[in-house]
Automatic annotation (TrEMBL):
Keywords in alphabetical order: Apoplast, Cell wall, Cell wall biogenesis/degradation, Disulfide bond, Glycoprotein, Glycosidase, Hydrolase, Secreted, Signal, Transferase
Protein name as catalogued: Xyloglucan endotransglucosylase/hydrolase
EC number assigned by the record: 2.4.1.207
GO terms, molecular function: hydrolase activity, hydrolyzing O-glycosyl compounds; xyloglucan:xyloglucosyl transferase activity
Main enzyme class: transferase
Mod. after translation: Contains at least one intrachain disulfide bond essential for its enzymatic activity.
Keyword Signal set for record: yes
Signal peptide: 1-26
Length: 298
């Protein structure tokens, strides 16, 4: 086959494609973006329990017997990609919960939750996720992680568009919530959300169902954060739609479903690390919740 010159139709096609792709306003981040805390976030309460390092590019949340603490995004967003790098409370973290979530502000609220339930030294954390739509939650899934989340930073992120919500751990999908409005299930699409994180004491339920209590002699409990990247459609709190709907990278075809590699990774997580999945809880839900039917392999 002869070599093709730069001006061959294939090259022109490629340039046109590149132009179209760059026209979708930003590309997905391939690696964690080192965005400082203050650009996107502000503390929510107990300001003296947040410590700043490296000019605010890394922070710590401290929990002691007086209080936990937390922070929230300055902006509200309708769709996008939201990630955080977190190093969870090391050692004896039993009774503590570290959360990273998106939530709308009203009563019929939408919420997308990561909750990390601490444990005694050497015992595994549980990652609980949940999705609330129109104020209705009760969609818990629980997994163990395939690494020790206290030893190093790992990234936790949410991809949210009109088609689905995906939870990622280090870019591996651990959960998908598809838009099933055709099956009568509400999907978060018209209420902007803020991003929140917090560290607090929840020893009434968190560890072994509340049997393991927080050992305050080990305080302060410290979770560390960096990479405060947000790539979302910023909207006023009252907005009902995103002004650039359909034009951003997360709206494009390749982000409207997982690809086959991602489905295989998700299946790997489900088969190897699942502790609990409301979709398979026939005691609590005698009939399969409709959205679970789009949740392959269930
Ligand atoms: C804590 O460790 C125990 C014992 O290994 C385990 O059963 C439990 O699932 C772990 N995690 C939590 C949050 O309770």
């Amino acid at each position: 086959m002869p070599c093709r010159s730069m001006a061959s139709p294939h090259w022109i096609l490629l340039l046109v494609l590149l132009f179209i792709v760059s026209g979708t306003m930003g590309a997905p981040p391939k690696r964690p973006v080192a965005v400082p805390f203050g650009r996107n976030y502000a503390p929510t309460w107990a300001l003296d329990h947040i410590k700043y390092y490296n000019g605010g590019s890394e922070i710590e949340l401290h929990l002691d017997k007086y209080t936990g603490t937390g922070f929230q995004s300055k902006g509200s967003y309708l769709f996008g990609h939201f990630s955080m790098q977190i190093k969870l409370v090391p050692g004896d973290s039993a009774g503590t919960v570290t959360a990273f979530y998106l939530s709308s502000q009203n009563s019929e609220h939408d919420e997308i939750d990561f909750e990390f339930l601490g444990n005694r030294t050497g015992q595994p954390y549980i990652l609980q996720t949940n999705v609330f739509t129109g104020g209705k939650g009760d969609r818990e899934q629980r997994i163990y992680l395939w690494f020790d989340p206290t030893k190093a930073y790992h990234s936790y992120s949410v991809l949210w568009n009109m088609y689905l919500v995906v939870f990622f751990v280090d870019d591996i999908p651990i959960r998908v919530f598809k838009n099933c409005k055709d099956l009568g299930v509400r999907f978060p699409f018209n209420q902007p959300m803020k991003i929140y994180s917090s560290l607090w004491n929840a020893d009434d339920w968190a560890t072994r169902g509340g049997l393991e209590k927080t050992d305050w002699s080990k305080a302060p409990f410290i979770a560390a954060y960096k990479g405060f990247h947000i790539d979302g459609c910023e909207s006023s709190v009252e907005a009902k739609f995103c002004a650039t709907q359909g034009k951003r990278w997360w709206d494009q075809k390749e982000f409207q479903d997982l690809d086959s590699y991602q489905w295989r990774r998700l299946l790997w997580v489900r088969t190897k690390f699942t502790i609990y999945n409301y979709c398979t809880d026939r005691v609590r839900y005698p009939t399969v919740p409709p959205e679970c039917r789009r949740d392959r392999d269930i």
